[in-house]
Request: fold
Amino acid sequence: MKGMFMTIENSIRILAGIMVLTSVALAHWVSPSWLLLAVFVGLNLIQSAFTGFCPAEIILKKIGVGGKGGSCCK
Reply:
């Protein structure tokens, strides 16, 4: 990681990865329906690449995550 601060882009990637891994674990141990969470995360990543609208970025910025660096969604 470059510099002292984590970028918003890295924060979003970490959040997406955690959500997908959580979804897979819950699908394995609780119910296969939890795979819909992984589908939602994937679709959101795809739409943000095309539209520039990224709800995770908005939420992370409001809670003060991101430090220096640009947006991954714009």
